[in-house]
Amino acid sequence: MYTKEELIEFENEIAACFDDAQIRAPVHLYNDNEEQMIEIFEKHNIGPEDWVLCSWRSHYQCLLKGVPREELKAAILAGRSISLCFKEYRVFSSGIVTGVLPIATGIALDIKRKGTTNRVYCFMGDMTSETGMAHECIKYARNHELPIHFIIEDIYPHAGAGTRVQF
To answer: Could you tell me if 150 and 141 are in contact, meaning their C-beta atoms sit under 8 angstroms apart?
Structure first.
């Protein structure tokens, strides 16, 4: 597991690469919420068989899920920062605002149908959580008792919120 300082160090390294024009694509960096992200991964014991789906801000989730630091950095340098996907680590992210929500719900439905014990963790921004797609996916997951956790992230944790876990 990474420490808060190691996560911040990684993002600072990526920011320096962007500033040096080594990255020719959009990059969405984390700032704060390190402690909350670590807590979520530890509290829920998110393991190799679990799925993590997230939006365009997913560097911390990738690292905490087990994507090797250098593999993640290479993908970011290749221009995939906002759409990082690592099938072998069961990580999928998308730059489309609600893009991962129905995919996460579908994966959870498949897990339930197969009767396996892995779970899905779907991270979304606070504004994404206000969309109709979020409402429909959360409602469907709840009504069908799917093995999924929806996590709403707030990019302004010092404004009184922070990363919040729903369900």
So the answer is: yes
